Amino acid sequence: MYDALVVGAGLSGLVMAERLCTQLGWKCLLIDRREHIGGNCYDAPDANGVLTHLYGPHYFRSNYPEAIAYLSAFTTWREIRYRVSSFTDGRHWSFPINLRTFEQLIGRESSPEEFRGWLDRRRMSFGEPQNSEEAMLASVGPELYEKFFKGYTQKQWNKHPRDLHPSVCRRIPIRTTRDEAYFDDSFQAMPQEGYTALFQRMLQACGNNLDLRLGLDFSEARNRFAYGHLIYTGPIDEYFGTGLGRLEYRSLRFELESYSSRDLARLGRQGFRQPYLQVNYPNSQPYTRIVEIKHATGQDTPHTNLMREYPQECAPGREPYYPVLTPPNLALYQKYLGLAAKERGVTFLGRLATYTYLNMDQAVERALRVFQGKFAAGVYGAGRERRA
């Protein structure tokens, strides 16, 4: 008899399992249908020993002191500023859009005042934008929207931006200064030894209060084990057997290219294959971006690797990565949310279970908030003894 079954060993599930085990002394079973912990944040060395993000780049950044302090108990950090380029029209462009991007566009030096005036003359007015296309046309106007956002968004989501919620494209900042940093968050860093090492320390902190079962699906575990409370971080429609219809998620395919020092020497390169951590391809290529994560990890090795990222449909057997935030999907999610509200002894947590795009720090912060507000406060009881 477990106090809690935690479904999903990604960030949300790991945080909740660690808190329940270490702070309340609960006996928890943590499961994941993959063969590793960490969910999409999992990292591991490639054939040359280069630490690799197997499911795309995960850039930790945050303005949440609680999330930073919590994770800092399990890792030291390598603080960095993430740099990204966008490759279109046969050249690299400074990205996200900033004064340098504008100077590349007009072919001369400029000023923040000139760039702001240029944007003001091109921005379109919609009142409150109703979709991602309107959001970006209102932010940067048609020329920059077509060059950097429209094609990338269509590849990423297989949807026209006008069919997506405004928040989908609003995540990328627009600056009129020469600040080329990809994010504005006050804290930007990578775990010094990688994400998997961080997660392993979280599990070690749980001691004998945690049992971990990998390669185990919830549909099997719910019938094999007795438990009091359920923490569910999987797709919410799957929990209900897709009885109201399937929610739409976007999946990804990754293509890894490893380069030894000898490979790089033949190409006339040393240490790195491309000049930027991440290069976006908004228009001409079938992939959306190429990432050379060694730029961020700072690993001391003469080898490197590239990871190409291809968005794809979330067919059966493929991992769901992103909720597709269209009006029909959001309406269907509200129906599932109504069913979830009637479930006793179940907490729905994380990106897939709440059908919300969450950054890593947001996932950590929400898990901590749910734990403190409901479990530590005694709303959900205090273990097997009380429930017995």
UniProtKB/TrEMBL annotation:
<keyword id="KW-0274">FAD</keyword>
<dbReference type="GO" id="GO:0050660">
    <property type="term" value="F:flavin adenine dinucleotide binding"/>
</dbReference>
<comment type="similarity">
    <text>Belongs to the UDP-galactopyranose/dTDP-fucopyranose mutase family.</text>
</comment>
<dbReference type="InterPro" id="IPR004379">
    <property type="entry name" value="UDP-GALP_mutase"/>
</dbReference>
<dbReference type="Pfam" id="PF03275">
    <property type="entry name" value="GLF"/>
</dbReference>
<protein>
    <submittedName>
        <fullName>UDP-galactopyranose mutase</fullName>
    </submittedName>
</protein>
<dbReference type="GO" id="GO:0005829">
    <property type="term" value="C:cytosol"/>
</dbReference>
<keyword id="KW-0413">Isomerase</keyword>
<keyword id="KW-0285">Flavoprotein</keyword>
<dbReference type="GO" id="GO:0008767">
    <property type="term" value="F:UDP-galactopyranose mutase activity"/>
</dbReference>
<dbReference type="Pfam" id="PF13450">
    <property type="entry name" value="NAD_binding_8"/>
</dbReference>
<dbReference type="InterPro" id="IPR015899">
    <property type="entry name" value="UDP-GalPyranose_mutase_C"/>
</dbReference>
<feature type="domain" description="UDP-galactopyranose mutase C-terminal">
    <location>
        <begin position="147"/>
        <end position="357"/>
    </location>
</feature>
